[in-house]
Amino acid sequence: MAHNAVYFPDEFLAQMREAMPAHLSFDAFIAACQRPLRRSIRVNTLKISVAAFLELVSPYGWQLTPIPWCEEGFWIEREDEDALPLGSTAEHLSGLFYIQEASSMLPVSALFAADNQPVRVMDVAAAPGSKTTQIAARMGNRGAILANEYSASRVKVLHANISRCGIHNVALTHFDGRVFGAALPEAFDAILLDAPCSGEGVVRKDPDALKNWSVASNQEIAATQRELIDSAFHALRPGGTLVYSTCTLNRDENEAICGWLKEKYPDAVEFDSLEDLFEGAASALTGEGFLHVFPQIFDCEGFFVARLRKTAAVEPLPAPGYKVGNFPFTPMKTRESQNVIQAAASVGLHWDETQRLWQRDKEIWLFPAEIEPLIGKVRFSRIGIKLADVHNKGFRWQHEAVIALAGSDNPHAFALTHEEAQEWYRGRDVYPENSPAQDDAIVTFQGQPLGLAKKVGSRLKNSYPRELVRDGRLFAGKA
Questions:
Q1: Cα separation, 141 vs 52, whole angstroms
Q2: How many helices (H) and strands (E) are present in the chain, helices listed first?
Q3: Per residue in 338-377, pLDDT tens?
């Protein structure tokens, strides 16, 4: 099955013919670009182990093929593809997996290669969140991630995906990525710059991806990429790791960008070879040790990944001229904190010492402690998760806190049937045969928290956020 006419500009084809390594076939490249993309998913290990996930979905007849560079990643083939979108399955709605293109799992694998265990990480261009959520899972929800997104409309999607996956160690910002070198010098152990690019690798998803392609446009994009990588490099601490990636194929936006940085800071930039990242990596390896993934190599999107190390400090950039403004939160005092911790525990919500309680008026928030040194240096859109609103009868616990903190073996869990869980996702109240013992119950399906329900007589009052409510056909499977 091939796409209807992928659009290839002549100049692009000439450039690719020249860039193609001797061991690869140009005809195979063209053929691969015209095949539809294989679907792939990544299991969210913050909520379920890979083994438990495979057992859970085994009755569905999904064909899952492991992705070599990501042990949580699988190519997926389904018989009921047309009947039920992957995004409407119960496992997706409760954050057990993320729909993510296989090659886009490469940069995070590269970031954590060679046993790298960063504590504070920045994802410079983070939406829609596939890589941020992958980083959070690799960090076990500890430490802190600054996830930045330049496009205002995409920040909302980024937050929704982080929330669905039960992540609480992320702080969101909304800036041009070029500000961070000056604003947060040497603040991060690791940085992922998945740079905006000309997108030559995505024609399998979008046959018209190259409609506006031109060499001049690529050169313009490359100029921005140089500024972004320079800024990211300044924000990285000496000894830290920077992964630079794109979903494009030309050398100007890839190898040349990394070469430019090394030329600019010859004594501070080292390239780490990705040859041993996974078995078979050598077939996409460049002379510098980068991965230049043409789509025919692994039958996925075209991609480029480089791993760089900062071996010494560099001359700092001039301090930013902007004012951050007042920070409206204050850390909660120990005694008040203890009250909140006890009250949260009484409904089965728990966290550890890597999280701190902060307050703004009647709102209580949990911030990742590792982000605190950055407060006051940059303006945040959102930090951590909102835990509760204070009201006269105690606390009103928030949906995202339940999803992130309730865990899968909660004493307050009240399991919903298959039909009841569907009703819950449609925003409707549920009438179970037997009511939960306590007034506040954490409703679950497949052992995963779906939200907090209040018992009103024989009814469980639905608290599912209105913006998440789903219509149409929901998950298949048996109750």
A1: 19
A2: 14, 22
A3: 999 999 999 999 999 999 999 999 999 999 999 999 999 9
Rounded CA separation 274/131 (Å)? 18
Q: What is the pLDDT of residues 155-208, one digit of tens each?
A: 999 999 999 999 999 999 999 999 999 999 999 999 999 999 999 999 999 999
DSSP letter for each residue of 381-395: SEESEEEEEEETTEE
- Name the residue with tokens 């093929």: 65
What amino acid positions are annotated as catalytic residues? 247
Element spanning 259, H or E: helix 255-264
- CA 178 to chain CA centroid, nearest Å: 21
Calculate the alpha carbon distances from 97 to 47, 92, 154, 337, 388 in Å: 9, 5, 20, 33, 26
Cα gap 411→278, rounded to integer Å? 41
Residue with tokens 């886009």, as numbered in its chain: 104
CA angle 73, 124, 139 (to 5 degrees): 45
Q: Is the pTM of this model over 0.90?
A: yes
C-alpha torsion sign, points 245, 247, 251, 252: negative
Are 191 and 308 in contact, with CB atoms under 8 Å apart?
no
